[in-house]
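Notes on consecutive records. When two proteins share a document, each keeps its own sequence and its own token line. Never mix them. Below: protein one.
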Amino acid sequence: MKIVLGSDHAGFEMKEDLKKFLSELGHEAEDAGTFSGEQSVDYPDWGVKAASKVASGKADRGILICGTGVGMSITANKVKGVYAALCADEYTARLSREHNGANVLVLGGRTTGAALARSITKAWLDTEPEGGRHLARRHKIMSYETQSGTEGVETAGSGRVMIIEHPLIQHKLSIVRDKDTSVKDFRDLVQEIAGLMAYEISRNLPLEEIDIQTPVCGTKGFSISGKKLAVVPVLRAGLGMVEGILRIIPNAKVGHIGLYRDPDTLQPVDYYCKLPNDIGERDIFIVDPMLATGGSASAAISHVKRVGGRRITLVSLIAAPEGVEKVSGDHPEVDIFTAALDERLNDHGYIVPGLGDAGDRLYGTK
């Protein structure tokens, strides 16, 4: 495991000791500074530097140290994607991982002894996050971080990351995750979730006032003001979401993009593309149930852009942080809608906890 360490002058001595300790445990330790305990420095400078490496994926976890640990804890938690925990004993260290999924450990260089700091560090490194109610609570933290009311928040560019937490969606998503859910039920539920998500995805479509006649009298009503829409599934799993969206937006045109992920390189391979001729005039919803590495989604967006598509939204049931980072980095103007932001990818590129291979579960091919 690659672990980045950062400290101010008050935490320098402990940082040096923990670097040796991490090497003894077989971990790779990266020192982000400070590099002397003699000169007074500002802890935010070194805290942000180290925490940013965790947030960007350049380090698996981080350890920060200042005099009490309070300043470093506050600093680290200002970095999006960092969940820092100030720990003074092994019990707190374990629970910060089991319950809270902390990816940065914070210690007090002047309040915690060297031996205790080592035992806290080992307990923290040896503990993995738990699922169940703790996973649901972590999802809420991630949602608060990436969402502001119904509008979401800005990512690196102008795109938003929106986690749709409607109770019906979360209820149905839990059934979809269950490995014992039948192919028929899985397929039906994916369509239902996609349809429910379509309400949020289409929330900002502009309306124009129209005159209508009810059985009682004339009145004013509203109509979607000439907006052209296109739903573009990424084959094959994306097909499972199309019908659910078309039930809500029946006039949308449907395109198709064929991509598969090379099992060895995990890179997307292009094999088919058929889109509406007027794709450049349409608001485009690219749909794929799983945003895992982000490679296929990013390639699909690039493909649509090459043929003139401009107003693009990505829609998935479940996303991994790695996939969100990839798409937001490659296409910062693209909004991402998902029903869940899960913990991570495993060594095979599958989302954890995820739901397995969506295509296989949709069509019963495995």
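Protein two starts on the next line and is unrelated to protein one.
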Amino acid sequence: MQPRNMSMNGVVDLAAVKAAQEAKAKAEQTRAEAARQGGTGAVAPADLVIDVDEAGFERDVIQRSAEVPVVIDFWAEWCQPCKQLSPVLERLAVEYNGRILLAKIDVDANQLLMQQFGVQGIPAVFAVVAGQALPLFQGAAGEQQIRQTLDQLVQVAEQRFGLTGLTVDPDAQPGGAVRAEAPVGPHEGTLNAAAQAMDAGDLAGAIQAYKNVLADDPTHPEAKLGLAQAELLHRVQGMDPQRVRKDAAEKPADPGAQIAAADLDLVGGHVEDAFGRLIETVRRTQGDDRDAVRRRLLELFEVVGAEDPRVVGARRALARALF
């Protein structure tokens, strides 16, 4: 697995948003399957700190990151600062009571993982959230700094990715929680083909694949999200950003100019600007023009995700502009 970088500064990473939606759906499926098998899904405190190697990375880190932020501690036996940092991380992992999972990776035994994350020196601490990797800090940090970083990580995981963590039972036996693989859906092959097309830059092929899924299941959440993303990227692919921005500035009441600029805003990570631009255009327009702007705004809501606080706020503002 080649980790992808993610920041916590509010910028929309389309790959991260897609992964978040997938992760949330798979986590819900996994919990439901575990319940059917008679398990509670609760983990013991000892299960909050795990040793991970290359063979188990996909299972123990990537899959688990669909439920809980996984903090990765890259360490080595010979590293003296690691011996100071690791006990602090282990203690905090238990103290955070399921809001994070600590994965310890010995770099001497797992050189490939060290290279994939771009680790230049140890100790180095990363996190994986919904399959997305992000650096936290390098070197021996103070406990206050670590707490602040973990608090921010937990907040981002919950607000942007809907991850609420693990249920911890002090009486549970270590390793006793029922772990079930999420069932493979009937459209898994088509969705994988769509994702591969997206990665290859074949946006038209991805759009068609997602439409094929929605033709059979019109409410499929992953296909709806994927289609919204693919169509957005397809729309901006041939744009001249300078020309689009110039047109938008010169024609504030032109719905087409504002819609094109909003697409660029969103792809560039300027979420509030995109939403605000279209909401203001709704106020300035009537009839079919207003409806076209409203529909594009709803499509952009799909890209960002219904539970994102920025979408929630923009929906309220849209309602005020309409009524």
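For the record: The chain has a mean pLDDT of 84.
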